[in-house]
Each structure stands twice: as structure tokens, then as C-alpha cells.
Design a protein that fits this description.
58% helix; alpha+beta; elongated; single chain; 16% strand; 3-stranded mixed β-sheet
Length: 188
């Protein structure tokens, strides 16, 4: 029994202590309450503007990402087979050399010519075109690689005299420069 009285007494003391610690909050006046709400509204307005700015920036980043991916995709489709084409070009060169160095009355040459034409038409379907470099064309380092320089009175200086190896373009990008001989002024 004593224990019950003791517990009840402890409980009463705790309740009195809790009441002593409670402070009475005075209700805010209407002006103070309005000012507090206006400050909260202004803070939320700033937060809203900040969130809107973040949204617009993220939206722009997403749009830029989409454009970049689309451009990369187009380039892969346009130039993705560049490596295999580079591996085929020496075969084209060898077939052209075989035709140039063989006698024209050999019947095998006709088959080599047909094979070369078929290979060139296939390359053309994929956007591969030769760089046109006839003799007398001005030397352009963007499309030509000078292998040697030859003094020449017949041609203007800095023009192509001879082509060692054809150059090729893939769509509008240089795949391989033409290797050429360039004319220079003869020594006086």
C-alpha cells in the first residue's frame, strides 16, 4: 500500500513541476500575425523563384543533352564506317596499279577493271568520293600531301605535277589526303 501512495505522490509532484515550467504564450496581435505571414510568404516566394530557375536550367540542360545525343547519333551514322573504308582503300589502290601496269590485251585485266568499278560504286554508295587532283591544280594542304617537289618550267609553282596516291573524302570530311608531287620554280 505504501508503494501506491508513494507513486501517487511522485506523480502529483511531476504534474506540479510541469505546470510551473509552462509559460503562457500571449496571443499575437493581428498586425504581428500579418507581418509574420507576409515574411513567410516572401520567403516562400523566393524559394519558388529559386525552384523555377532550377527547373528552367535543368530543362535547358536536358534539351542540350538531347541535341548533343542526336548530333552524335547522326555522326555515327554518317562516319561510323570510316575504319572499314580506310582498310578497303589500299585494295582499291592495288587494283588501280594492276590495271596501270598490265598490258591492255590481257583478258584478266577486264575482270580486274570490273572488280575495281564494282568496289568504287559500292564506296560511292556510302559517300566515299576521290579527291580530284589533275595536273596543274593548285596545291592545297587541306586535301593534298606533298611527297616531293620538282623544278618545272611548264607548270606554275605550287601546282600539282603528279599524283602518287589518290585522296578520298567521306561525305564532306577528308578520309585520306592525295599524295602528290608539287612544282617549284627552277633554280636560276
Amino acid at each position: 500500500m505504501d508503494k501506491k501512495k508513494h507513486d501517487a505522490h511522485q506523480h502529483d509532484k511531476k504534474a506540479e513541476a510541469a505546470q510551473d515550467n509552462v509559460e503562457l504564450v500571449q496571443p499575437l496581435s493581428d498586425a504581428d500575425r500579418i507581418k509574420e505571414l507576409e515574411e513567410a510568404l516572401a520567403a516562400k516566394g523566393l524559394e519558388s523563384a529559386s525552384n523555377w530557375d532550377k527547373y528552367l536550367r535543368e530543362r535547358a540542360d536536358l534539351e542540350n543533352y538531347r541535341k548533343r545525343v542526336q548530333k552524335e547519333k547522326e555522326e555515327i551514322l554518317k562516319y561510323g564506317n570510316e575504319q572499314i573504308i580506310m582498310e578497303l582503300l589500299p585494295s582499291v589502290d592495288n587494283l588501280e596499279r594492276a590495271i596501270d601496269h598490265a598490258s591492255q590485251d590481257d583478258p584478266i585485266i577486264e575482270g580486274v577493271k570490273l572488280t575495281l568499278n564494282m568496289l568504287l560504286s559500292t564506296l560511292k554508295k556510302f559517300g566515299v568520293t576521290p579527291v580530284e587532283t589533275p595536273a596543274g591544280t593548285p596545291f592545297d594542304p587541306a586535301f593534298h600531301q606533298a611527297m616531293t617537289q620538282v623544278p618545272s618550267e611548264e607548270q606554275e609553282p605550287n601546282t600539282i605535277v603528279n599524283v602518287f596516291q589518290k585522296g578520298y573524302m567521306l561525305n564532306d570530311r577528308l578520309l585520306r589526303p592525295a599524295m602528290v608531287t608539287v612544282a617549284v620554280k627552277p633554280a636560276a
